[in-house]
Design a protein that fits this description.
Helix content is 34%, strand content 25%. It has 346 residues and is of the alpha/beta class. 40% of the residues are buried.
């Protein structure tokens, strides 16, 4: 099968008469075991194993070329794996392709549509492909256009929509048939800040209803606020699976800022706590040249093992009279894990 989602689609795929609200197999979520897929001599997906659970948002994290989009295309039933097994809501996308499509909402990274159709007509046409009655398809289109804040453009041809508006229409299209599994490839691409917030709220709500949501994105800060679990890919392989709770609890950098930076750094040195600020790296008993810690706002960074260590440091600083203004992670939890993996790769 070819990747046709990047260009305007042809006639919609006709699905079998499976009730669109069927929950069979939904409790199994999405599973991949030893999945591989190549294109000629290029191994896009080399060995991927993970489990995305229902009721949770799972992030696919990795650099360009890590195999994220190829993996999502296989899960959506648009590519056939060379080896390994996949199940989506209890069904194999290869042997039960139509059953998987009936239960899956697929949003590609590039939204292809019929440019001459209006936003409402696009959704109604997709609804017809999923065996919704004409009246129900129109009703569902109106509901979803309101949901993604495109109701004022319902009768505008798709060709006049901006990149961000097409992304929102693409999300609505993936929800037409009330799927139990959502496969979203870079869903926040092109969205303005308000729309990004709306997307997070919507996906959290959908997950709370028991759906399985798999999201690929390069914007790790967005995923930090959205995801429950993460699957890290590198060169087509699964290099780590982690929950956000576990990622947050591991050793990471924290940024401290005080009213008087001199008092803060003097206290850290007396306490023997290694820190980093500007172009200096603090060590036990003094400072030495080191890499930049970020913006020159008088803040310093310290590496701490877990939340208890953070609480202990803050308590000790306050008791010592250090006028702390803020204490916050220097990086998001996913970014911290990703950077540590990149460091190991070097």
């Amino acid at each position: 099968m070819s990747r046709a989602d990047a260009s305007p689609p042809g006639p919609p795929t006709v699905l079998p008469e499976t009730p669109p609200d069927s929950r069979a197999g939904a409790s199994e979520g999405v599973r991949a075991v030893g999945v591989r897929r190549g294109f000629g001599s290029v191994r896009a997906v080399d060995s991927v194993t993970f489990h995305a659970r229902p009721g949770r948002v799972t992030a696919l994290v990795g650099p360009n070329g890590a195999g994220k989009t190829t993996l999502l295309l296989m899960l959506a039933g648009l590519l056939v794996p060379d080896a390994g097994t996949l199940t989506v809501a209890g069904h194999d996308p290869v042997t039960h392709n139509m059953e998987v499509r009936a239960r899956t909402g697929w949003m590609p990274d590039t939204f292809g549509t019929w440019d001459s159709l209006t936003a409402r007509e696009v959704l109604a046409t997709v609804g017809a492909a999923y065996f919704l009655s004409a009246a129900r398809a129109r009703q569902r289109a109106d509901e979803l256009l309101r949901l993604v804040h495109l109701d004022d453009l319902a009768d505008a041809p798709a060709r006049v929509l901006s990149r961000g508006q097409k992304q929102r229409l693409g999300l609505a299209r993936s929800l037409v048939h009330d799927p139990q599994v959502l496969l979203l490839d870079e869903p926040a691409s092109g969205l303005d800040p308000r729309s990004r917030v709306d997307l997070r709220v919507l996906l959290r709500r959908l997950a709370s209803e028991g759906r399985t949501i798999l999201v690929s994105s390069h914007v790790l800060t967005e995923l930090d606020e959205l995801a429950d679990d993460a699957v890290f890919l590198s060169r087509g392989r699964t290099v780590r699976e982690s929950s956000l709770a576990a990622a947050t609890g591991q050793r990471r950098a924290w940024r401290l800022r005080a009213l008087d930076p001199v008092v803060l750094t003097a206290w850290l040195e007396d306490a023997g706590v290694e820190y980093r600020r500007g172009t200096e790296r603090g060590t036990e008993g003094g400072t030495k040249p080191g890499p930049s810690a970020g913006p020159d706002d008088g803040s310093v960074q310290v590496e701490l093992d877990d939340d208890e260590s953070v609480a202990g440091l803050v308590r000790a600083a306050v008791l010592a009279g250090v006028p702390l203004v803020s204490v916050a992670p220097a990086n998001g939890a996913l970014e911290q894990v990703y950077l540590s993996l990149e460091e190991e790769r070097r």
